[in-house]
Amino acid sequence: MKPIQVHFLFSIIFFLSMGTGCGYQFGGEGFGPSPDIRSIAIPTFTNETYEAGIETIVTNAILRELIKDRRLKVVGVDEADAIMEGTVTSFAISSVAYDPTGVVSEYRTSVALDVIVKGKKKGEILWNKRGLLESDVYRVSSDVLLTEAEKERAIQKIAEELAGRIRRRLFEGL
Prior knowledge:
By secondary structure, the protein is an alpha/beta fold. It has a single domain (40-170), classed as Lipoprotein like domain (Double Stranded RNA Binding Domain), CATH 3.30.160. The chain has three helices and six strands. Strands 1, 2, 3, 4, 5 and 6 form a six-stranded mixed beta sheet that branches. α2 (54-69) packs across α3.
């Protein structure tokens, strides 16, 4: 073998062994799998905004995401090993595009959450994330009902994105 190939091969072996040896691992911010935590309860989030019902949309999206994931069993509070609590802290709508006459043609809606997961037995904080923010743009129509439907679609999409981010961050490093 040429010296360059040997050096390259040695470098690969060295870096692979560093990632698996000596107890070193790339750590994330999630709590990952634990023998003590096999189930989770997710009561309806608190809503600190003026957007009625947004807490239910967000909570349901998170429930669907974790049920689909299946790493934790989603159960009621009485049966759970951990409890996820959350607050919708912010909901905002701002105009982002205008038609040639100066009338708004697109809005951006943004939602922010604080989420905490606590172990039920000891009450310890297993995971805490403040200020999770997601946004989406939707088109405005001269039909108010159509515009409202587009806003609801955007909120649902935001909730699904936030739910996916929460799931990934809970189990980060797996």
